[in-house]
Specification:
Layout lengths: L1 H68 L7 H63 L9
Helix pairs in contact: 1-2
Length: 148
């Protein structure tokens, strides 16, 4: 009967390790996907900021052309208006980049959390397996020689 108990404990321990490894691989995969999404967030923000700058540049060029057509020079108030518009355009682009960086940071934090889950799952699986083996060996009539 003792040998069967030990074999059962070994199978149970192996099962605990295999299950923890599968769960850890899933967490590692989630981490990798979150890390990739972080990179995509940064790329999308850079693309959107560049588009914001292009739209703003066209808007600024149109305003200058309209003023020139009406005979207004680019000195004084019109120059200040152009500078303010250019600053607003850049501010909008920087806000887009900051928002993308924040989304990327959240994804990187999710990746770190998933990696931590994977490590914890692996550790828990091994601890469970060890406990199962010790319980099986102790319950199977084997003297482990451990004295407290």
């Amino acid at each position: 009967m003792g040998a069967l108990t030990l074999v059962g404990a070994a199978l149970s321990a192996a099962s605990a390790v295999a299950a923890s490894q599968a769960n850890a691989k899933a967490a590692d995969f989630t981490a990798e996907m979150a890390q990739q999404q972080a990179g995509r967030e940064k790329q999308m923000a850079a693309r959107d900021a560049a588009a914001q700058r292009r739209r703003g540049s066209r808007q600024l060029a149109t305003a200058r052309a309209q003023r020139a057509a009406s005979g207004v020079t680019a000195q004084g108030s019109p120059l200040l208006a152009d500078e303010a518009l250019a600053a607003d355009i850049e501010l909008g682009a920087q806000e887009i980049l900051a928002d993308g960086a924040a989304r990327a940071q959240r994804q990187q934090q999710e990746a770190a959390l998933s990696r931590a889950r994977a490590r914890s799952t692996r550790t828990t699986g091994f601890r469970s397996a060890g406990s199962t083996l010790l319980t099986g060996a102790g319950g199977g009539g084997f003297d482990l020689g451990i004295r407290i």
